[in-house]
Specification:
The protein is α/β, with parallel strands linked by helices. It is built from 13 helices and 13 strands. The structure holds pyridoxal-5'-phosphate. The site of pyridoxal-5'-phosphate (PLP) has 12 residues, from helix 4 and helix 5. The site of pyridoxal-5'-phosphate has 12 residues, from helix 4 and helix 5.
């Protein structure tokens, strides 16, 4: 455990001793009006641009310019197999085998594709269990799937609620809900890290409890991938989806990822929405009228891979892998603890922190609940060069990320934040 100290010199020393500090230079940091580095705490919404991204995009454009359609087979990274590299790079980040992972589409699209295969209501088992206040897109996707199968979301959706007076869910309450209601549940679909509270769920325990009751278990890892270590294969998770533009720095609306446990693709009769790129690669161009899925997650692809959008993701994932999830997690928890230490040191009743302080139950993000004037505080922070996020009615979300944020950013932020309180 790090013993935190209040002075700026502590932050300076932490940065000097930080083995990950050199990674900051690999990213473009947005500048303030005065030409200084801003304090960028929005890696939970859109990660910063790796300096290598532009070269990789240009290299793909060059291959197209030089080779035309031959770019599928020639050039610096042939398009036919381009996204294999992404599966390999994702594997250590989400804890899956490359064959269990595919880079395709965007997150909400993948949620639907996965539910097409894995939400199979039948008889009394027709419900989806999700956490209350999931990200809106997930709520829309889930409710529309329930309706698509002819059920009323009022009956077909079980939402897990925190206890009265609490902001986050207790694992024991989730397990209890699964134990008592699991027989009516076809699918459990939960955000691995909740986008609003920053709470990290015990995915291994939830998966075990769900499987004990015969439920399929999937996770939305938008706020977990690249933020916390994951072991999807070993946890026996059925499927998962994530976006690549938050903690993974792949660029705006960059191509997302999906995981399907390798128990499943063996069941080749599993219903799925199919497209030609999911067809077995060796025989794809025989143009057979009958779909023969690629083994593994690749069998869920519909269209040919959008190489230009995959290019920045590839370079970004290379950086995350070089740093390594364990090292990133170590720094992330040290930074989160430091932020909490400094905020608590303000001894202010103007705010509370809703994110659990237990390292097992959190990632990078801290969600600060403002008692009043939250919106004005957020505006003042932005004006002072702190990129952070405002969620109605009272929440400021702060995400110090280990790849490019410094302990000094946290120190400076808390000074500015204290100043905003007047
Ligand atoms: C960011 C986020 C999304 C966004 O979905 P897109 O399809 O990428 O626009 C969806 N769900 C969760 C939980 C998110 O955090």
């Amino acid at each position: 455990m790090t013993t935190y100290q209040t002075g700026r010199d502590f932050a300076v020393r932490m940065d000097r001793e930080d083995a990950l500090a050199p990674y900051r230079a690999q990213f473009h940091i947005p500048q303030t009006a005065e030409g200084k580095d801003s304090i960028y705490f929005l890696g939970n919404s859109l990660g910063l641009q790796p300096k290598t991204a532009q070269d990789e995009v240009l290299a793909v454009l060059d291959d197209w310019k030089t080779h035309g359609i031959q770019g599928f087979y020639k050039g610096h990274a042939p398009w036919l197999t381009y996204n294999q590299a992404l599966s390999d790079l994702y594997a250590p980040i989400v804890g899956g085998k490359p064959s269990e992972i595919v880079a395709m589409n965007t997150l909400s699209v993948n949620l639907h594709l996965m539910m097409a295969s894995f939400y199979r209501p039948s008889g009394k088992r027709f419900k989806i269990m999700a956490e209350k206040s999931a990200f809106p897109s997930d709520q829309y996707a889930i409710k529309s799937q329930i309706k698509f199968h002819g059920f009323d979301p009022a009956e077909g959706l079980i939402e897990l609620n925190p206890r009265a007076g609490e902001k986050t869910l207790r694992t024991e309450d989730i397990i209890e809900a699964i134990a008592t209601q699991g027989e009516s549940v076809a699918l459990i679909l939960i955000g691995g890290v909740n986008y609003y509270t920053g709470q990290l769920f015990d995915m291994a325990a939830i998966t075990r409890a769900g499987h004990d009751k015969g439920c399929v278990v999937g996770f939305d890892l938008a706020h977990a991938a690249g933020n916390v270590p994951l072991a999807l294969h070993d946890w026996d998770v059925d499927f998962a989806c994530w976006c690549s533009y938050k903690y993974l720095n792949g660029g705006p609306a960059s191509i997302a990822g999906a995981f399907v446990h390798d128990r499943h693709p063996q069941e080749l009769d599993l219903p799925r929405f199919a497209g030609w790129w999911g067809h077995e690669q060796e025989t794809r161009f025989l143009m057979s009228p009958d779909f023969k899925p690629s083994p593994g997650a690749a069998g869920w692809q519909l269209s040919n891979a959008p190489v230009l959008s995959l290019a920045p993701v590839k370079t970004a994932l290379e950086i995350s892998n070089q740093a390594g999830m364990d090292a990133l997690r170590g720094k992330s928890l040290a930074m989160a603890g430091y932020l909490e230490f400094l905020l608590n040191g303000l001894n202010s009743d103007a705010f509370t922190i809703m994110t659990p302080s237990d390292p097992q139950a959190r990632g990078c993000q801290s969600s600060i609940v403002m008692r009043e004037n939250g919106k004005a505080t957020h505006e003042a922070l932005m004006a002072a060069g702190v990129y952070c996020d405002w969620r109605e009615p009272d929440c400021i979300r702060i995400a110090p990320v280990p790849l490019y944020n410094r302990f000094e950013d946290i120190y400076d932020f808390v000074q500015i934040f204290a100043g905003c309180q007047g």
